[in-house]
Amino acid sequence: MKRIPEETIEQIRSNVNIVEIVSQYVQLHKSGKNYFGLCPFHEEKTPSFSVTDEKQIFHCFSCHRGGNVFKFIMEMEKISFPEAVIKVAELGGIALPASITEDGSASDQADTQTGQLRQIYALSADLFHHILVNTAIGEPALNYLHQRGLSDETIETFYLGFAPTQQVLLPFLKDRNFSRELLVRSGLFSEGNDGSLYQRFKERVLFPIRDPQKRVIAFSGRLLTKDDQLPKYLNSPETVLFNKRKVLFNFDLAKGEIRQQGFAILFEGFMDVISAYQAGVHQGVASMGTSLTNEQIYLLERTTERLCLCYDGDSPGQKATARALQLLQPITKLELGVIPIPGQRDPDEYINQESPAAFVKLVENGQQNQMSFWFSFLATERNLTNENDQLAYISDVLEKIAGVASPVARDLYLGQLAKRFSLDKKSLAGQLHSLLQQQARKNFQQQTRQPVPLARKAAPAAKNYDRVEKAERLLLYRLLHSYDVRLKLRETNNFAFVHDSYQTIYLLAEGYFKQYSDYDPARFLDFLADEHLRQLMVELEVENHAAVGSAEEVDDCMRLIMQLSPLEEQLAALKQQLETARRMNNQKLVEELTIKFVELLKQRQLKKSASL
């Protein structure tokens, strides 16, 4: 990859806003001057991920990751710096010369195993798609998809494919010199008893599974013709690219629409997602299994605050909706809703039998909250013409109302229940009060009996710095932000920071200011090659320093630091002399230097203690 010119990097950096870029990956809320959200780099329930608009940097106060917009994209998409620069330009709507975008088009270096696996899946997706849309052996599968109501444009959007019975994939990939070991690791082949490789997907319509960066990482294959001896759907096995717990089908296309619309829709099947997309509802996703995993829930929580379930309208589909709500409600902060499909149909059937416009209207106007769903669903479980079933239904609904946090909402639902059965609302309120008391006692017992989970990691404690290091950090911050402080330090003979990291940043800053007249925290981060120094600078920038310091403050910091600097220089010199004496095997000199070294260490400790 050719080096991207510095002026191009500067143009991109100055024309994008990190808040807008990060918002395409993380749901952010403004608090004071900064924006906060759930960290995309580790799981958490309370937002500790911060984006500073003024300084154009991000920082997580829990996992301590931080940097500028390029670093964020590098971490999120696992790509190199040049690739991140190109991606930021793309996300920010900045056109780049073809000479730059062509050089940085690959997401991985070709000689890495992960990169080669990505190539295998990209090439496989190309082959299977070509077979579906351009060959005679793919014609039956293409006809099937057309009969299901999918247009050629939708087939292209989802890059659907067809894997024939013929062993076409193995020779295709072998011709491109992929090793046998890599083909096995891809999960696209199974091994026979004789060691031969066989194509995993045969006579199946293929749905490519993509990561949030739109890269194919797996396939799900549906049998074209029914065979009781084979599963209807077959997924790729887990690989270094694919972990089904972490992936949502169509999230790559849906995430932008989810943020724009303010909610996500969870469907049961891939075809429901695709049909909904074709109908104009683009925020649909589906899990890779029977229920959402913690990782998938967290992915959605970072993207939106509301999730609507749109399962089949028949009895099994409604029972699946009830199970999903029961599982999700205790473990997620997402506001949960339901989009019921009329007429015991699945979403795909509803769209094809009614119209795309009818489905769009259903999504816009037909959403139920959880209690509305429970009112209707629990009624299907009982014969409400029977008094015993009526009492059982009322008891079931009251249990659900007891789980509602808002007292106002509970009162509203009580009124609806009383009106439906012409009952005295006060008597229902009394029964609800008893349920709430029972629930409170049960929760208390569980909390007192349950041991503290050992696996839960406490948030990293705030770092404690001694007085000298606090002075170094403050002075470094001041010199970066003030020309007068930089000039004062240049005119001070033999000034040096005590700790190597701060001294290194100071020296690099001198080089930076020879190139740039102003200090830009996001730009300076790219000036630092060492990751430790970059993270140190991010932490320094997010500390609550006053905007302007005083001359007295700077003098105090310098005085405290310079008390220790000469000692540090002497210690460093003695250390080198000791190493030389050991290499020369001069034991007498080693003993003499060691005594001096220990004495200097004692002096340093005394000075540090005096300064605290």
The stretches of 5 or more residues where confidence is low (pLDDT under 50) are: 103-110, 452-459
Mean pLDDT comes to: 88
Number of strands: 17
Approximate shape: globular
Determine the N-to-C terminus distance.
51 Å
Q: Approximately how much helix is present in the residues?
A: 40-55%
Number of helices: 27
From the alpha carbons, calculate the radius of gyration and give it in angstroms.
32 Å
Largest sheet entry: 6 strands, mixed
Spatial sequence of strands, sheet with the most strands: 12-14-13-15-16-17
Q: How large is the share of residues in beta strands?
A: 5-15%
From the helix content, strand content and strand pairing, which structural class follows?
Answer: alpha+beta
Question: Would you write up a description of this structure?
Answer:
The protein has 612 residues and is α+β, with helices and mostly antiparallel strands. The chain is built from 27 helices and 17 strands. Helix 17 (370-380) runs antiparallel to helix 18, helix 21 (467-481) crosses helix 22 and helix 21 packs parallel to helix 23. The relative contact order is 0.06. Residues 103-110 and 452-459 have low confidence and may be disordered.
